[in-house]
């Protein structure tokens, strides 16, 4: 059979993959990849050229390489080559060592994997082969606890029915066991001789990265058998609880699904990075301008004055023309002034980011003891971006909530269960002291399950038919797998916490799920073992929003049990159930008012003949390769119509995570807009929004957009916009004084903008994201304090994030805990993953990860703000000191005949940035903090300067470079004037240029050191060591390189002997240095004092308050939580994933959630009281600062 193929864009691509068992010659015709993997980038021969090529693609490195080349030309270079090559080589070597180390570990990992041993069936027996020698079509044997060698088709195993258990942690981060099952036709091929005779051919899809999908067909013995994901073991999985299994290799090496998913992650760059690139171009243009000015000056000087010196300084052949001399001088000054773009800047930035990342990793206040999970910075490039976030996009389930479900209430046949009433028939609040239903008579009950309404237990004991059918449905209609660790100790492995909660409830009320096979489900009903024949599972997906099972009970009756969203179940009910549906719908609304997640259940009896016809259609559709899912969906829809009995609705409580309301309130006060993007229904999302302070009762309006057509959505969006504009105009006109007050004091700005919220449904969002409406949606959403998008798909989550990124230019952060959040996390500027109940997929794809949503507050308001503050102050100081250092050459050019003569000694030029001033600025960039972490959280308004780019922008760059230019001007001309008139103590003049250079260099080092001391807000022992140690190192090196000893060793490199000791021994020199320091530093210091005194920012006020309040503040009382009720309809919360039903019928296991202790409601503070405390603190800062200012003025 020849492989079908197509040609796409000139590349030969296989449309189908043909693999034949035990036939290497056949499979070799298709040139399939072998099983060797290679994730490394280099080898011993290619490392140097490839790594150098990659590094020189960076503009800064290429720029300095060009400068180095220019310095090798004697006619234009007045500096030795080592002044550039030393820092350049240092940067290249550090980067190369880092890259080589990373690649070395990749090589080790590749070798470790490629050299693993595998048993391959060859020559009638099992042979040990290295993984890299395994080929497509080989039959291999796996044993317990072994990694799966390649993507293989499971043929048989040691377990009954060809089952095997696998762990997929390397694929999706989940550690729970999953089940795979071989085809019945191959499940008995356990004998070596049978396996050698196996010559089946698999026709399947080409290599792809879809971990949850596989489509293929096995051709063997003139028959064909459908293959899906449940028949395949993927590379990276580990075989568990299975003695052995055999499989046929389908994909190998780089074509396996694991390796297909190892694509490159998009490189994220911060806004400061982008600004720095722009600024470097500006600096380069400024450098060109200075070179042109000085080059023109040289041309003029040579033509007018220089000719007078030709008698004893004759021109060379190249300098015969004044114009050409100016051209050469231009390049000479480009070399001399190149340090305005210091190469050490980029190394220092990376060191700072690495240090900031370690601070996040080491923060004990972001460590979650219950799960032993610490915060982790998975990238080092985005730390300062954390201080500029304006939009947070959050998942709900598992992110804001615990994703730990508790069966709370239910409605059965029109009667409600779950509430507790006193002797006066009044509902009472359930507390820890409320008596629970006693399940001790059930030996198989879950001891941790609690239910408080005894009437439901009594109804079960009285054999109420509706109640028993309710729990029977819960025990049958699910995809839970069972593990019985010991007699009576049942462990349910569920793919969602909802499933586990429902099956556990049925277990405690006497309907215990005991066992399952691909064909049967066994229950223990009120102590009696009952086995149901499982005829079909109608799987869940996001379109169907429901799942059903078809079973045959011991009496021979065929029943279809269904559970799903109340809307889809209601649509499929028989009209005879309308009265019951109305009653149940009222109960749904009541449950929704308490923020509970709801689910509707129903069933119907099936006719034998009708079912047999339908089953034949199902079997045919399940073997179709193309459009299989669509055909199955049509058949599912057909048999689920006309549900006769509307039984019940269940209500499950999904508790909020600890600290969520406080975190959201605090982020709101930091002017961070929070959008919740959830797959839950509108009512549930709104109720959770109220519970966690995202929505508040004092908001002016909560707009709900739920139109089904483009026109309806457009009308609703525009109506909301008009409403906001009309109220805003009226408010401003009626209370202008108040608006002025808010404009003056940013601490109160939040109280006037937190007025609107937007809630939009998934189907409405699909229309709103159309090009003609997306701007209207975005404008409306940005006017709202909170936005909730319900029933959204993972793709829609990413589209919403991309919309804000594209049109608002704001920094976005996405946070989630599940696989459905990965696309959103990767799309946002910053992705945060929670290690939650839904696995580790989000954490593995994120830039930062931790265990609880509440840690986001500390990540942004403390670490993010500090990182942004430190990076901005670092950059401002760095550019200042380099302009002060470099532009002295520019002023000197006007007094040296524009000859490109340097002021400083060449060794000073080489060591200034990498030795003399590197550590102080790194110390400031690593450890400085304007206010403490406590006050950063206490006053969220401190975060706003980062959002507005106030600390480092083009204006700040201009100011710091202007300060540097002024310092360079004063450095040169103060010394020039002093040396012009100054004499030594013996009466002789300072006539040597080297003494002039030493004095200016010493003044420069002292000035920039004093400046960084004044700029440092938070002193540590490390800062003291770095700052004063660097000054000491300068003098040590200065005296060393101008000593007799080093001259004797390197006479050509250190020709100036004793200049430093001779110059610095003069008192007049130290007076000049002192004068220069005072004149350079005092103006900036005066401006800073006046700014803080006359125009204090919130940061200045908090710092002043912090300094005046060193005593420990009195403890604050935590207000009691007030439970909120609402009439909003709650949501269907069935958190399934598609495909589990088919895998159950083939023995596939489900994912289980780890249940952690529920948080006491008393630990959650009421939102409004908490926010009032924050506002009081902000008011306190403003008032106290104002009072102190007035007192100081008096």
Automatic annotation (TrEMBL):
Keywords, alphabetical: ATP-binding, Magnesium, Membrane, Metal-binding, Nucleotide-binding, Translocase, Transmembrane, Transmembrane helix, Transport
Protein's UniProt keywords contain rRNA-binding: no
Annotated Mg(2+) binding sites: 395, 397, 817, 821
Region called Disordered, residue ranges: 1105-1128, 1145-1166
Catalytic residue positions: 395 (4-aspartylphosphate intermediate)
Subcellular location: Endomembrane system; Membrane
Taxonomic path: Eukaryota, Metazoa, Chordata, Craniata, Vertebrata
All residue ranges annotated as the P-type ATPase N-terminal domain in the record: 19-85
Name of the molecule in the record: Phospholipid-transporting ATPase
Signal peptide positions on this chain: none
TM ranges: 79-97, 279-301, 321-347, 874-895, 907-927, 957-983, 995-1014, 1026-1050, 1070-1090
Membrane topology: Multi-pass membrane protein
Class of the enzyme per the UniProt entry, highest EC level: translocase
Residues annotated to bind ATP: 395-397, 499, 540, 563, 597, 678-680, 791, 797, 820-821
Record's GO cellular component terms: plasma membrane; trans-Golgi network
Limits of the P-type ATPase C-terminal domain: 843-1097
